[in-house]
Structure formats: C-alpha cells, structure tokens
Known about the structure:
By secondary structure, the protein is mainly α. The protein has helices spanning 3-14, 18-39, 43-59, 70-88, 108-111, 116-124, 128-139, 144-151, 155-177. The protein folds into two domains: 3-88, RNA polymerase sigma factor, region 2, helix turn helix motif (Rna Polymerase Sigma Factor, Chain: A); 108-177, Orthogonal Bundle (Arc Repressor Mutant, subunit A).
Amino acid sequence: MGTEQLIETLKKCRKNDRNAQRELYESFYRFGLSVCLRYVADIEVSRELLNDGFMKVFTNIDQYKPEYPFVSWFKRILINTCINHLRKSHQNVPTAELIEAQEVGFELDLFGKFSVDEIGHLIQQLSPSYRTVFNLYVIEGYEHKDIAEMLGISIGTSLSNLHKARKKLQELILVNEL
C-alpha cells in the first residue's frame, strides 16, 4: 500500500468505514503477524493478539498522528498487546537480577549461515522472558531502561535476560550448526 493510499485508507478508517478497515487489515496482516510471532511462539495466540491489536487500532485511530509513520504506531500497539498477554499469562517471569550482566560476545557471522526463518525459529526456542527482552533490545532497538519500564522489571533483570538469551542463542546456533 502506497503512502497516498494509506493516508486515504486511514481517513476512511476514522469514519468507521468497514471496507477501509478490511483493506488496512489485509495490507498489514503479514507484517503484524511477524511482530506478534517474535513475542509469542504459538501461531494461534499470535493471530489472536494481532486481531486484538487491530481492534485497538480501529477503536483508537483518532489518537494516531499522521505526521508519524503508521507502521511505527501499529508496531508499538502490537508489542504492548503481546507484552500485556505475557504478563497476564505469567510467561514473562523475571529472572534473578544481576547487578552487572556481562555482554556475551556475538559472532555475527554465525547468523550468516542461517536463513531468516531459521533464525526466527532459534529465537522462538528462547523462554518468553528471554525472547521478549531480546526482541525489544536487539530487534526493536529499545534501551534497557525503557525495557525495564515496559515490562515492570529492573534494569538488572533486563540486562540479565539479554545476557542469558544471547548465551542460549549461541548454544542453539552451535547445536544446529553440527
């Protein structure tokens, strides 16, 4: 969907135009599902969360500011929806805090041997708490302070979860490489 078409579709969505809502849903379904799957491994749960996210978009469309990219706003809604789900289902149990977590050195060329789907599958094998922090930090680009605030954990816990996620990913990469 081009920029002009997106602007027009969003205008129609503000008027509760069902055809425009369907068009927006169909245009952003795959993108949205990929975001949800980064946080929740179960495809059916991810689809439910995606649908919940779209409902939030449609009911709160007046809060969207057109001067900002729609994709960023939509992605933020989906991430918050997934985090809330993880909190409610008690899957995001914080680990023991570390005062200082050492960074695990990540050899980027290790990832070069895998396809995007294979890397995604490896990330899905992380525990929900590790996967959530890993996604927020590495993929979404949030700082530990922001992650801690979003998840209701300490900065040390965020650091610890990232450290453990990276360590586990390296183990999975080495196992899958053999």
